[in-house]
Amino acid sequence: MSEIAVRAPEHAPAKEPDCWPELLRATGTLSVELAVTGLTVRELYRMAPGTLVETSVMEAATVPLRVNGQLIAFGEFQAVGERLAVRVAEIA
Q1: Contact at 8 Å (CB) between 62 and 74?
Q2: Which of 21, 33, 25, 27 is nearest to 68 (CA)?
Q3: CA distance linking residue 1 with residue 39, whole number of Å
């Protein structure tokens, strides 16, 4: 599994709120949804590590962010050095 770095914006509060401490430590799976049109079952079957899948999503396009399947926000792709990141643009 890849390591994920989460960096808060500079204007974010320095301290977590005192309410719901157990909830604030809960873990989940964050997923980013990309639309890939025209993908055939044959292409899906042939996928392997390193396969590149083209998408019509542009770098600054808004994409849904979900935690455990629940929509929580919308984000935008952004290049950070040689890595691809998602900047949270809007809370759902």
Answers
A1: yes
A2: 27
A3: 25
How many angstroms separate the CA atoms of 65 and 91, rounded? 9
Residue 75: CB atoms within 10 A of its CB come to: 19
Across the beta sheet with 83-91, the strand order is 30-32, 62-67, 70-80, 83-91
Residue-range domain boundaries for the chain: 21-91
pTM of the model: 0.61
CB 90 within 8 A of CB 73: yes
The per-residue pLDDT for range 58-72, each reduced to its tens digit, is 666 788 999 988 999
Query: Architecture of 21-91 per CATH?
Result: Roll (2.30)
